[in-house]
């Protein structure tokens, strides 16, 4: 099927990045946020990224103009009515996502495909609660969305072959490199990344080294762009804690159990870069 109009639900860090790449790829893109100030913050993040990109010589002024032209923001859910494909990037909560998809089900056309950007929730569960379980898939982007090349395409048990092919081709059309991941907690990347991050915290608690030295070790010794603590702060400690809990609940393996220090840092409000303090201060 042909996709012309893309709806994005949520204009936070991930939603705004997703809306940006869809608009940049030439899709008419409508991004919806619940309240005007959140929408404006997300739209400004997009404008700033494009502005900086032009300054750095990474984005042409023409591409900047076209992206912004293809993009519109709204607080009215009804404006997503004409979308051929909708990507949901709201809070990681099954009830909230279910409610949002139910509201969309009532207004969009029958061919519209639903995708969720969830990093941890069960795609089959989300799909089964809609009126279109065959036209539902996971489409998991990575932060920062405009820069990271990878997208995971996740098939629910109910996803039709046609939907899977359409979503996979759509991801390619965004200039991304899609991989096919199973509908199991963590999919492919977080399944490997989260235990590594949790192990870094556990190792630190056991006196392996300083935060700075562990980061330096992995960055310079393995060529990773960021050490595990910098990455934890970047992803968000609350997000990591949330994903780890879901993975532990399903797999019941110690590798996915959040270490005590992570829980305490979240309780203390040290979420990482976004809160001004995590393993580092910002
Ligand atoms: N417009 C266009 N391009 C831009 C840009 C802009 N405004 N800003 C930066 N770029 C480009 C740069 O030009 C550069 O491109 P180049 O490599 O071709 O020169 C590239 O983006 C990197 O930008 P910078 O050089 O400014 O920044 P860094 O080199 O410090 O890289 C980073 C920043 C990309 C965030 C890097 O540190 C990184 O890759 N970190 C790891 C990120 C990661 O692991 N993300 C995944 C998290 S897990 C996740 O998201 C899953 C979830 O479920 C938890």
Enumerate how many helices there are, as a single number: 11
The low-confidence parts are none
Order of helices and strands: EHEHHEEHEHEEHEHHHHH
- In CATH, the topology of the largest domain is named Rossmann fold
CATH superfamily of the largest domain: NAD(P)-binding Rossmann-like Domain
Beta-strand residue fraction = 5-15%
- Architecture of the largest domain, according to CATH? 3-Layer(aba) Sandwich
Could you explain how this protein is built, in words?
This protein is of the alpha/beta class and 282 residues long. It has helices at 13-24, 36-56, 61-70, 94-105, 123-128, 161-173, 189-205, 211-222, 228-235, 237-251, 260-267, and strands at residues 5-9, 28-32, 71-74, 85-88, 113-116, 136-141, 150-155, 177-181. It is globular, with a radius of gyration of 19 Å. Bound molecules: 3-hydroxybutanoyl-coenzyme A. 3-hydroxybutanoyl-coenzyme A binds next to helix 2 and helix 9.
Blueprint (SSEs and pairs):
Layout: E1 5-9, H1 13-24, E2 28-32, H2 36-56, H3 61-70, E3 71-74, E4 85-88, H4 94-105, E5 113-116, H5 123-128, E6 136-141, E7 150-155, H6 161-173, E8 177-181, H7 189-205, H8 211-222, H9 228-235, H10 237-251, H11 260-267
Parallel strand pairs: 1-2, 1-4, 2-3, 4-5, 5-6, 7-8
Antiparallel strand pairs: 6-7
Helix pairs in contact: 1-2, 1-3, 7-9, 7-10
The chain binds 3-hydroxybutanoyl-coenzyme A.
Residues 49, 52-53, 56, 58-59, 119, 142-144, 147-148, 190, 225-226, 231, 235, 239 line the site of 3-hydroxybutanoyl-coenzyme A.
């Amino acid at each position: 099927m042909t996709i012309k109009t893309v709806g994005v639900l949520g204009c936070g860090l991930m939603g705004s990045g997703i809306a940006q790449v869809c608009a940049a790829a030439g899709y008419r893109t409508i991004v919806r946020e619940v309240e005007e100030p959140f929408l404006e913050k997300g739209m400004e993040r997009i404008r700033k990224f494009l502005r900086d990109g032009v300054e750095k010589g990474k984005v042409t002024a023409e591409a900047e103009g076209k992206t912004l032209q293809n993009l519109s923001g709204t607080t009215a859910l009804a404006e997503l009515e004409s979308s051929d494909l909708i990507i949901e990037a709201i809070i990681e909560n099954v009830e909230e996502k279910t409610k949002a998809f139910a509201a969309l089900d009532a207004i969009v056309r029958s061919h519209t495909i639903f995708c969720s950007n969830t990093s941890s929730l069960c795609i089959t569960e989300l799909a089964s609660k809609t009126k279109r379980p065959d036209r539902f898939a996971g489409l998991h982007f990575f932060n920062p969305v405009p820069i990271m090349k990878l997208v995971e395409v996740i098939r629910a048990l109910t996803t039709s072959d046609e939907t899977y092919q359409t979503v996979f081709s759509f991801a390619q059309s965004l200039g991304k490199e899609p991989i096919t991941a199973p509908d199991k907690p963590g999919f492919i990347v977080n399944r490997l990344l989260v235990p590594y991050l949790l192990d870094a915290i556990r190792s630190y608690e056991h006196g392996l080294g300083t935060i700075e030295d562990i980061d330096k070790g992995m960055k310079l010794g393995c060529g990773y762009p960021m050490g595990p603590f910098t990455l934890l702060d970047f992803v968000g400690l609350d997000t990591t804690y949330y994903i780890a809990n879901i993975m532990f609940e399903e797999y019941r393996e110690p590798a996915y159990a959040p270490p005590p220090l992570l829980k305490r840092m979240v309780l203390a409000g040290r979420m990482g870069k976004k809160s001004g303090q995590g393993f580092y201060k910002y």
